[in-house]
Amino acid sequence: MEMMDKTCKDFLGELASRSATPGGGGAAALVGAVGAALGNMVGCLTAGKPKYAAVEGDILALNQKAAALRARLEGLVEADAAAFAPLAKAYGIPKDNPDRPAVMARALEAAAAVPLEIMEACGEAIALLEEYEAKGSVLAVSDAGCGAVFCRAALEAAGLNVAVNTRLMADRGRAAALDARAEALRAEYLPRAEAVYAKVCHRLGGN
């Protein structure tokens, strides 16, 4: 059974078990998908309301993008599990086997690529949530804030899963390039997620 076909209870049970998958990367993708879905919820609660007729077109466009991002992140839950399998096998190759370095290099590259894509998708979701917060129904503004918080957490969690693989790469130049991309995503999108949260808190009368 694919990860996204499991019940929430079964998914969490496997996450809490000795099973190698799902792990942190898959959990990050799922949390990011939740964040994107919350944005979509804001849009659905806004579309069709006369009060928001001026932004109707923007909201409908946001909803299409949010739905696509949610589907992409759901797919990355599966992709993260699939990428870990070859890496687990590579760890089992004896260290004196001449094929091990090349196999490890390929496996680590794939295992780092998926969480990096999760980071990218979460960043895109944060950008959408900025617009949902600004244009969406005031009755759902808290959901936009929740979505930003989830996507921020997912982006940071995915970043840890990039780092856990790049640190083992023999090609330090490639590792540095992947780490730099992850850091750039953090630098761009984490402050934006924090800003969405702060705006929502202010609108709700918080600090």
TrEMBL record:
**Cyclodeaminase/cyclohydrolase domain boundaries:** 7-183
InterPro entries linked: Cyclodeamin/CycHdrlase, Formintransfe-cycloase-like_sf
Which GO terms of the molecular function aspect are on file? catalytic activity
Q: What is this protein called?
A: Cyclodeaminase/cyclohydrolase family protein
Q: Please name the source species.
A: Candidatus Faecalibacterium gallistercoris
- High-level lineage: Bacteria, Bacillati, Bacillota, Clostridia, Eubacteriales
